[in-house]
Please model this.
Amino acid sequence: MSDPRKAQEQEPTTHFGFQDVPESQKAEKVAEVFHSVAAKYDLMNDVLSGGLHRLWKRFTIELSGVRTGNRVLDIAGGTGDLTRKFSSIVGPTGQVVLADINDSMLKVGRDRLLDKGVAGNVQFVQADAEKLPFPDNHFDVVTIAFGLRNVTHKEDALRSMLRVLKPGGRLLVLEFSKPGNPLLAKVYDTYSFSFMPLAGKLITNDSESYRYLAESIRMHPDQETLKAMMVDAGFERVTYHNMTGGIVALHRGIKP
Amino acid sequence: MLITGLLAGVEAGLNRALRLDGTALPRLQALSGKVIAVQCQSPALELFILPSGDGLQLAAQWHAPADCTLTAPAASLLRLALSREKTAVLHRPEVSLDGDSAVLLQLAGILQDLELDWEYEISRWLGPVATTLLAGHLRSRVNLASHGAASLKQNLADYLAEESRTLVGQREADARFAELDQLKLALDRLEARIERLTSANKSDA
Model:
């Protein structure tokens, strides 16, 4: 008979912020974070980024090259910022799928989009980025904005995204990254570990989730590492654009 | 990123204005999915316009082919924006238009026909009673100002033409021009007559 404690000890670990946790527990812990912040997610995004997240997302849409009639998958779509814009661009002949592993975020996103009259060409799917429940060669564009760092097996997720993309389709990964300027990095560290948890405490009464946010950003691969991961997963012509001094980077790869 | 931010601000303002016209957004819906590229030559700038039922989306770059590309210097683009005779501006040699020009002309037409219901916007902030009072007051002021301006123009023209005699009056000028026209016609007739007599003399000789 196998000893469960021994089995747990043998299980590979992954990072959850600065902690090491068994791989099987990361998704659950990330889910707890997002259940906690879902209700005030948009407000916190505006407060913590000073509204800059809207510009980062705008830039993502500009680079996506989405056209009328395209099929778009917005993974970790959360409250639906990108989905809303994509829905308007692809029109009634296109389709946008807002996928999120977290049902609280998905509900907030769905309600918000419906309240704004976005319906008809949008579908909401609760899905794990590592095992996307879509056919091969199905989407023209796949985006994942501020979601990849929360995925346990990033390589599996990238391969899954490659699988569902049509040949010639584009993957856009918008994610926090590493600032290029050491001085900016220092200021950003102070901001992340002092102001972000404090703002989280004051607005959502949850400083831990925002401490996790800051820690998970530091544990996420930097620009070049993520680019190499995308190339390894099978993407071609992988490029990235630094925004706000490299605090955020947008990676773009094409399925051959 | 700065240009993206700037365009986001312009887009928000523009779409707010478009929402004040009840017909603009349904007309823009017909252009949904079209991409218009505007390339300014001096200074070198590029702007992409994507109309939809929600308004206009402005982008500094767009990684998909445009349906219509307008290339012109900044001065011509400004002239195009302000002129009512847009087709005349589009035919100028420094302006080039590639692709489906109907998309651009349709968009220009929608923007030109805008009739903003500013009273509705004010009523959202001040309420219907205050808006009616304010709108009535503003309207009477605008009427007074426009009548005042027209009256001032007329009085000034009368003074300069009739009283100070600094300028020739319009009617006086018209009469002089009519006399000159008559004189010119008479001269032409005389010239033709002389020519006829000269040729008759030559043939007799």
About this structure: The two ends of chain A are 48 Å apart (CA to CA). The beta strands of chain A are 13-16, 19-22, 71-75, 95-100, 122-126, 139-145, 165-176, 236-243, 248-254. The mean pLDDT of chain A is 85.
